């Protein structure tokens, strides 16, 4: 949110005009939207709520940063600037030398993916405004709904207000996975090493296929898109450019069902980026955008080059270098090296239960999924680890190493059941299974982590894409995901590997600052090749289990990041603690050892850097702003809770919008019901956080 300088909502008769949240950010298909109307609705529906208060705190923080930067800027003398101009010129020449125009990258992104899949299953939805998700959160909206300003990550009740005819369809992650697999089969024909960035998008190096077949990149893009359509009945859009950063921007140019090719020529690239708004670049979020715009008047990529001296004067070398490279239209061109996985796992979160039959049923489902994943990769392993999280959030792991290598669901279930049996009776909220110690001989094609799971994506370093990925927030069971330490995979998609964390938006990625944690880093941003060994409580207990967390934060930036975070104590949660520890806990599965979380209220982090530990919403790190909004919801809930004395925490998202949600008239009733529901197993409806301060519930 930003406000017009010097005005307040009481002085300003249209305060929503300066109210910008992720919901008012345009996605593809929203060009003709009445932005002011959207702003007004969002403003009116959130004003007076804890959410709104928090937005104001965030705004205050941004303003403080901007002010600080302005002061530093004003102190720069002409001599300083002359010096920094030389520095900038040198950097630009060095970067220019590294420009690589030899590769052709194609970025493909499915159109309104979840919504399109749902429309395939139910053609009666065709042409009608619809959204996938529920009253709490929308995963995506079709292009008809976008005309009303309805978009991904928006609470459904706001969407209803914008578009009363909106039809809601619950998420069905299995379906999206199925269609995603079909698309990937097509991608493989053009680049066997393609890089899946999320369920609905991928990067393909089409240099070879263009050369071998003697056809243009535009022809390849056309052909690929029609083959995706033939295979799936779904449309997609493509962008072609000399590097991944540009290819991604290009795929949005003619969305939906279109493509855009940027020639591999320096002048074409320079011209293309010159007028490109900096916000179009993955990794430049709201805070960065405002900072650059309000302090230096930078709006376009070209202006990054023009203001190079200021950038070099005010920011660290790597940050300035990143900005300059964006100005030059540079991006990743190499295919990162692949390392092979060491384990494979699957786990599932659900409402706490001690019903034995139910627990065995969950176990059987997980065994089935795990076995199917293992079959796909031709994996056979002989160490089976059972991970449990009890109702009181104690994490236990039990492992067995077998004589023979297994991969069938029957074998997995048989041994897992024995492990589980030894723990009963127990009330559980999570069960996970992991198989490791693979039989190398039986590993068929080397498992390519680039194309496997969402975890691969999460670990792939493409952590700064603003609008990509997968989320399945509503469901009686939260969808499955892999333990974080599944693989030794670590590579970067090269889009943002250069983005310094110092300059990551401080509100991104659930990075709620903690003044108590002086060494806090963005541990959430996994993906850079750096690996750090974090001593865990289990290790200090002498068990020697090695935990490696792949982190994005380059060491050189950590102090700067800490500094940035420490300044923002205004909206921190006392209970937040250190993300490292929690990611570590989620990631680590020490063998034969129970590990407990000492404070059951201390649970807010992204499990596997992917799923909200509080409510189970799946939101990959690429959904930077959506994630920020999400953590804000929890913050607001906490504040609300503290004020009203209610307990909203730790409800898992089991609430699916039922059929009634399909009609706008029923939705209001439903909303009310959700708002006051506190029974275990009900997810926290996001509208709860929009409860006005003066309302008691
Ligand atoms: P996107 O590719 O960003 O969006 P989209 O495919 O729905 O629409 P388009 O590409 O045509 O603009 O995201 C892909 C899927 O990821 C989307 O269908 C649903 C999911 N998603 C979420 O779950 N939450 C989000 O906040 C966003 C942006 C997407
Ligand atoms: Mg898409």
Produce a short descriptive summary.
One of its GO terms (molecular function) is zinc ion binding. The chain is an alpha+beta fold and 697 residues long.
Which helices and strands occur, and which strands form pairs?
Layout: H1 35-46, H2 50-74, H3 78-97, E1 105-110, H4 113-121, E2 130-133, E3 138-141, H5 143-146, H6 156-162, E4 167-169, H7 173-190, E5 195-198, E6 201-205, H8 207-213, H9 217-232, E7 236-241, H10 244-251, E8 259-261, H11 266-274, H12 286-296, H13 301-306, H14 308-314, H15 317-328, E9 343-353, H16 356-377, E10 381-390, E11 394-406, H17 409-421, E12 428-438, H18 454-458, E13 531-533, H19 537-543, E14 548-550, H20 555-566, H21 579-587, E15 593-596, E16 606-607, E17 611-612, H22 624-644, H23 664-676
Parallel strand pairs: 2-4, 7-8
Antiparallel strand pairs: 1-6, 1-7, 2-3, 5-6, 9-12, 10-11, 10-12, 11-15, 13-14, 16-17
**Overall form:** globular
Radius of gyration: 25 Å
Helix vs. strand class: alpha+beta
Sheet with the most strands, sense and barrel status: 5 strands, mixed
Number of helical runs? 23
Order of the strands making up the biggest sheet? 5-6-1-7-8
Could you tell me the strand content as a percent range? 5-15%
């Amino acid at each position: 949110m930003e406000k017009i300088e010097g005005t307040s909502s009481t002085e300003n008769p249209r305060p929503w005009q300066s109210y910008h949240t992720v919901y008012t950010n345009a996605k593809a298909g929203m060009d003709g939207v009445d932005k002011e109307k959207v702003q007004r609705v969002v403003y009116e529906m959130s004003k007076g709520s804890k959410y709104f208060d928090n937005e104001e705190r965030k705004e205050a923080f941004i303003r403080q940063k901007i002010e600080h930067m302005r002061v530093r800027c004003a102190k720069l003398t002409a001599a300083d600037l002359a010096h920094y101009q030389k520095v900038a010129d040198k950097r630009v020449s060095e970067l220019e030398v590294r420009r690589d125009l030899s590769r052709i990258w194609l970025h493909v992104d499915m159109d309104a993916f979840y919504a399109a899949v749902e429309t395939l299953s139910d053609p009666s939805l065709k042409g009608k405004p619809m959204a996938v998700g529920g009253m709490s959160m929308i995963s995506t909206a079709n292009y008809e709904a976008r005309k009303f300003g309805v978009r991904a990550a928006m609470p459904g009740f706001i969407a209803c207000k914008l578009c009363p005819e909106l039809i809601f369809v619950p998420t069905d992650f299995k379906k999206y996975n199925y269609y995603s697999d079909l698309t990937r089969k097509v991608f493989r024909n053009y680049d066997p090493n393609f890089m899946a960035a999320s369920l609905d998008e991928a990067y393909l190096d089409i240099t070879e296929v263009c050369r071998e077949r003697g056809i243009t990149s535009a022809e390849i893009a056309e052909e690929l898109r029609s083959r995706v359509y033939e295979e799936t009945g779904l449309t997609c859009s493509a962008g072609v450019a000399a590097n991944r950063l540009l290819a991604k921007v290009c795929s949005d140019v003619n969305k939906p069902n279109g493509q855009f090719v940027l020639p591999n020529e320096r002048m074409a690239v320079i011209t293309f980026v010159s007028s490109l708004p900096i916000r179009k670049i993955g990794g430049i979020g709201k805070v960065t955008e405002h900072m650059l715009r309000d302090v230096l008047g930078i709006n376009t990529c070209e202006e990054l080059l023009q203001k190079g001296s200021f950038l070099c004067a005010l920011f660290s070398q790597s940050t300035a270098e990143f900005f300059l490279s964006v100005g030059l239209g540079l991006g990743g061109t190499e295919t990162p090296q692949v390392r092979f996985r060491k384990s494979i796992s699957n786990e599932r979160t659900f409402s706490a239960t001690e019903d034995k039959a139910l627990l065995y049923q969950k176990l059987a489902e997980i065994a089935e999924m795990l076995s199917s994943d293992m079959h796909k990769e031709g994996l056979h392993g002989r160490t089976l680890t059972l991970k449990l999280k009890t109702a009181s959030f104690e994490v236990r792991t039990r492992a067995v190493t077998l004589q023979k290598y297994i991969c069938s669901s029957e074998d997995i279930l048989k041994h897992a059941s024995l492990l589980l049996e030894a723990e009963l009776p127990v009330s559980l909220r999570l069960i996970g299974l992991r198989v490791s110690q693979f039989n190398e001989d039986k590993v068929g094609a080397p498992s390519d982590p680039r194309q496997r799971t969402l975890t691969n994506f999460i670990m792939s370093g493409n952590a700064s894409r603003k609008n990509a990925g997968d989320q399945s927030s509503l469901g009686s069971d939260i969808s499955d995901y892999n333990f974080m330490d599944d693989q030794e995979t670590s590579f970067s998609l090269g889009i943002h590997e250069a983005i310094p964390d110092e300059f990551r938006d401080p509100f991104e990625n659930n990075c709620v600052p903690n003044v108590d944690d002086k060494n806090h880093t963005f541990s959430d941003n996994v993906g850079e090749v750096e690996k750090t060994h974090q001593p865990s409580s289990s290790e200090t207990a002498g068990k020697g289990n090695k935990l490696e967390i792949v982190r994005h934060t380059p060491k050189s930036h950590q102090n700067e990041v800490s500094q940035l975070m420490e300044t923002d104590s205004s909206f921190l949660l006392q209970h937040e603690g250190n993300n490292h520890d929690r990611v570590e806990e989620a990631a680590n599965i020490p063998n034969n050892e129970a590990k407990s979380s000492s404070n059951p209220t201390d649970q807010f982090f992204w499990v596997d850097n992917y799923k909200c530990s509080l409510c189970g919403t799946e939101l990959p790190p690429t959904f930077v702003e959506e994630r920020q909004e999400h953590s804000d919801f929890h913050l607001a809930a906490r504040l609300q809770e503290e004020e009203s004395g209610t307990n909203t925490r730790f409800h898992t998202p089991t609430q699916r919008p039922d059929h009634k949600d399909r009609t706008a008239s029923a939705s209001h009733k439903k909303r009310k019901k959700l708002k006051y529901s506190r029974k275990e197993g009900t997810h926290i409806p996001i509208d709860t956080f929009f409860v006005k301060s003066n309302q008691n519930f």
